[in-house]
Amino acid sequence: MVLEGVSGTGKSTLARALAERLGGATSLHTLPTPHTGWSALINERLRALPQFAFYLSGLLHAADLIRLARAVRPVVADRYASSVVACHAAVHEVPVEEVAGLLEPFRPYLETPTRTYYLGCSEAALRGRLAIKPDAKQDDLDLLAVPGRLARLVTNFRSVRAADATAVPLDMDGKSPGHLADWIVADLEAQSA
Ligand SMILES: Nc1ncnc2c1ncn2[C@@H]1O[C@H](COP(=O)(O)OP(=O)(O)OP(=O)(O)O)[C@@H](O)[C@H]1O
Ligand SMILES: [Mg+2]
C-alpha cells in the first residue's frame, strides 16, 4: 500500500504504526536511497526537466525495490508516483496533467499499489505539525515560506487522487496514528476478503 500526502500529514508516523501491526512489513520511502542523499543538490542545481528525470529515476528504482519486497511480505510505501507528479507540478508551477504526461510512458514499469491512502488534514493542523517536525528539510520550510506553495500542493494532490483508481481518502484530523493504522488494516482485510 502507498501513503500519500503533503509533508507533515503524518505519512512516516503512520508507516511505522502500520509496519508494526502488519508484523514485519517492509516500509520504504520514495525517494529511496541512494537518490535521497542527492535531492538537495539536485533541487538547487538542476532545471525543471532534469530535476523531474531525477525524481523519475528514484521512482523507477523504488518500483524495483517494491517488486522484490512484496514477493515476500506486505510493503508500505511512504510516497510514490502521486508525490512525484503533485510535488513537481507545485514546485515548478506547471499543470499536474503536464507532469502526469511525462510520467505516462513509464507507468507499465511501476508496481500498481493495492491501495493508495491520501492523507489530509486541516491547514492549521498541518502548520502545527510542520513546526515540530523533527526531520524538517528545505522543502518543508518552503512549504510555509513560498507564497501559494502549500495551496498548490493540496490542490495538486486532490487532482492526482481524482485520477487514481487505487485512491482512498484518509482524514487525519484528531486521529491517532494507532487508530488510523487499525482502520487501514481493517480496510485491507475487507478488500482481500
Ligand atoms: N495522527 C497524528 N496526529 C497528530 N500528530 C501527528 C500525527 N501523525 C504525525 N504527527 C506529527 O506530525 C509531524 C509530522 O509527521 P510525519 O513526519 O509522519 O509526516 P510526513 O507526512 O512523513 O512528512 P514528510 O513528507 O515531510 O516526511 C510529526 O511531528 C508527528 O509526530
Ligand atoms: Mg515522512
Automatic annotation (TrEMBL):
Segments forming domain Thymidylate kinase-like: 3-129
Pfam families attached to this UniProt entry: Thymidylate_kin (PF02223)
Swiss-Prot/TrEMBL keywords: Kinase, Transferase
Domain of life: Bacteria
Record carries keyword DNA-binding: no
Alphabetized InterPro entries for the sequence: P-loop_NTPase, Thymidylate_kin-like_dom
The keyword Secreted belongs to this UniProt entry's keyword annotation: no
GO molecular function: kinase activity
Cross-referenced CDD domains: NK
Protein name: Thymidylate kinase
